[in-house]
Design goal:
690 residues; alpha+beta; Four Helix Bundle (Hemerythrin (Met), subunit A); Alpha-Beta Plaits; 5 domains; six-stranded mixed β-sheet; five-stranded antiparallel β-sheet; 21 helices; 23 strands; flat; disordered C terminus
Length: 690
């Protein structure tokens, strides 16, 4: 029966992309000079696994390209090549090409053959240059380690191979029989198998390897061809290859203890080593974006909760079958227990979707490395809070806004080394990414110690572009908020990094769409800080239930600043701006929700209702409501999926009494305030009811 190996492709791609991430991270952390053997081994093993898997699944272009990379890495780990900036940058470029090749294979699209050939040529040129420089040294080593009999024989008559697979070799997907068939295609092959370690049939594990082989391959065969057949299993076996001379042709079974010079096969052909590599086996790769790695503790916790739920259900079922008035206290206790179990299960299930934010942070070392080289800046990237957990869906959507903010700090924030030195700063600037939990949210901070926001320049640019009136007097905080206006940019030169006026407004829009917020703090000469607040999950949120007429609505708790009672005398009428309420040192515009939703309120008198002050897009507004009903966690249902997109509404939820409540979208309400003609039509409630 044949096996369709395509079913394993997804796992291969997931593990390969994780391996590329490990290679990239390792290369970025290499110090210039003599290579750190352990660090190089980590990079080498990742490349080796990708090459082996690609070859197994028939992706030969990927395998052959990785083979050239692996040769360079092997020279580095053997101490034959030092780490240089040029070498590191070339290997990073090769990692990019390899990622593009794997993506193309996965998505069944065309590869950029010209780019692949160009980078491969660079790798081979660097290999050739290195080989010329160490050729003399290699010859002297060979003279010391080569047996005198081998010196007299110019060409061996074949090869004697001692092949001892490790017990787990079959579990890696490698098959010795396939290797022997490849050997047989090279010349005359004879084999002797050692069955001494084969256990009794009752103790036999079908996935374990117990046999060892001694192989004799005769013919005029380059050793490189023999080595290449075994190179994908060199970490999974003990392998000795010796030249077969005429005098030894009849020695089919070699003496295992004979102290003959041996050659241990590295992952590359052409290299002879007198000392073995003690590199550890690579750890099992983690699933990437297509799956979630879940700790067994989380699964065990869910199993226990299911058990508790079954017990509670059984108890309530018995009470229901024989219910009497005297059993009312038991029923109340059972329902309380059911509520507790349900809440714990909800939290447990949500934890399964939580991933450490390091999955989002991992892209930035490479980004900072490449951009700082391109711009001629010296940058130290500091990461903290990488283990802070965030919902997988939020993680996937926050990546692009974070990239833009980091690029902004690099381009606009950090100064050139000479400018920093003249200002008495360290020539190397610092960008700090930090993540931590705060209440029911996650906070991500992007800080830099650069020049800070130039408030005068921002103000003048905003006036030039007509974004604000030149007569307006703004506080520093309000000036900082101008960078989030559409079309705003202070860049004097348009480049591929910044300067087209598209960016910060999109960043805020994307973050707001996740139910989060972004704010900026800056001090000239000392640096800037962007602070992002996000909900831990997009499926459940903490909300405040409000009532307008006979309808209940949910306001995201993260948006609420405060709720208060107001006096009619405090309300100011402003032509073209509507009603404003003086809240400490600023005026807050008022939106009467009964007008927005076209319902009949209990009262239109502000003194008889409540004002809920909310914040979105850096601006505060007051929502006039009839009453506050309490806070609760709500499960968000998409309104756009089930109905259509409605300005001012982000979704809906089902309350405990079975009724539907709309969830307010604060940025959308801001848009309604600025453009009342975009108000939701009064018939929306009739449509929703239908």
């Amino acid at each position: 029966m044949s096996i369709d190996i395509s079913q394993f492709h997804d796992v291969f791609f997931e593990e390969s992309f994780e391996g590329l991430d490990a290679m990239e991270s390792g290369l970025l952390n290499l110090d210039i000079g003599a290579a750190d053997v352990e660090a190089i081994n980590t990079i080498f093993r990742a490349a080796h696994s990708i090459k082996g898997g690609a070859g197994t699944f028939g992706f030969m272009a990927v395998s052959e390209f990785t083979h050239v990379m692996e040769t360079l890495l092997d020279e580095m780990r053997n101490g034959e090549r030092d780490v240089t900036p040029d070498l590191t940058n070339l290997l990073l470029e090769a990692v990019d090409v390899l990622r593009e090749m794997l993506t193309a294979v996965q998505q069944k699209t065309e590869t950029d053959d010209e780019r692949i050939a160009d980078v491969r040529q660079k790798l081979e040129s660097m290999l050739d240059a290195g080989s010329e420089s160490v050729a003399g040294g290699d010859a002297s080593v060979a003279d010391v380690t080569t047996n005198k009999t081998e010196e007299k024989e110019a060409t061996p008559k074949g090869w004697k191979i001692d092949f001892r697979p490790h017990q787990h070799l079959l579990q890696t997907g490698n098959d010795p029989v396939r290797m022997f068939r490849e050997l047989e295609s090279l010349g005359e092959l004879s084999t002797t198998v050692d069955e001494s370690k084969l256990p009794p049939f009752s103790d036999l594990e079908p996935e374990d390897s117990y046999l060892t082989w001694q192989l004799i391959i005769k013919g005029d065969i380059p050793k490189d061809d023999v080595v290449e057949i075994f190179e994908w299993v060199d970490d999974d076996c003990d392998l000795v290859i010796e030249p077969l001379m005429e005098a030894a042709e009849e020695e089919i079974v070699a003496d295992q203890a004979q102290p003959e010079p041996v050659v241990e096969v590295p992952s590359e052909p052409v290299k002879e080593q007198t000392s073995s590599d003690s590199a550890a086996k690579p750890a099992a790769a983690a699933p990437a974006a297509a799956s979630i790695r879940v700790g067994t503790d989380k699964v065990d916790s869910l199993i226990n909760l299911v058990g508790e739920l079954v017990i509670t259900q059984s108890m309530l079922s018995q009470i229901g079958d024989n219910f009497t008035e005297e059993m009312l206290p038991q029923l109340i206790d059972g329902l309380a227990q059911l509520e507790r179990n349900t809440r714990e299960m909800q939290e447990g299930i949500m934890r399964i979707r939580m991933l450490p934010i390091s999955f989002a942070f991992n892209r930035f070392p490479r980004l900072v490395h490449d951009m700082s080289d391109k711009m001629g800046k010296k940058v130290n990237l500091k990461l903290s809070g990488e283990q802070t957990e965030l919902d997988k869906t939020v993680m996937e959507k926050i990546g692009d806004p974070l990239v833009h903010l980091v690029r902004n700090s690099l381009d606009h924030g950090l100064e050139m080394p000479d400018v920093r030195a003249a200002a008495g700063k360290n020539e190397t600037g610092t960008i700090h990414l930090n993540a931590y939990h705060q209440g029911g949210n996650i906070v991500i901070e992007i800080k830099d110690d650069g020049a800070g926001l130039n408030e005068d320049k921002i103000y003048k640019k905003a006036v030039e572009r007509g974004l604000i009136n030149g007569s307006e007097i703004l506080s520093p905080e309000k000036i900082h908020e101008l960078i989030f206006l559409p079309g705003f940019s202070t860049a004097d030169v348009v480049s591929d990094i910044s300067g087209r006026g598209v960016g910060m407004d999109v960043v805020r829009k994307n973050i707001n769409s996740l139910g989060g917020s972004v704010e900026v703090a800056s001090k000239q000469g000392e640096g800037s800080s962007f602070i992002i607040r996000l909900p831990l999950t997009l499926a459940i949120m903490d909300g405040q239930t409000i009532r307008v007429a006979d309808e209940n609505y949910i306001v995201p708790l993260i948006s609420i600043i405060e709720s208060l009672e107001v006096k009619a005398s405090d309300i100011k009428q402003v032509s073209g701006r509507g009603e404003l309420y003086p809240l400490r040192d600023e005026y807050v515009p008022i939106i009467r929700l009964y007008d927005v939703f076209g319902v009949e309120p209990d009262t239109t008198d502000v003194e008889e209702g409540l004002l809920v002050v909310v914040e979105g897009e850096g601006q505060k507004i007051g929502l006039f409501v009839d009453d506050l009903l309490g806070q609760q966690q709500v499960v968000i249902k998409s309104l756009e999926t089930n109905y259509r997109k409605v300005l001012g509404i982000s979704g809906a939820t089902i309350l405990g009494d079975g009724t539907v409540a709309l969830i307010l979208d604060v940025p959308g309400l801001m848009t309604l305030y600025r453009d009342p003609s975009a108000a939701i039509p009064p018939q929306i409630n009739d449509e929703r009811a239908a």
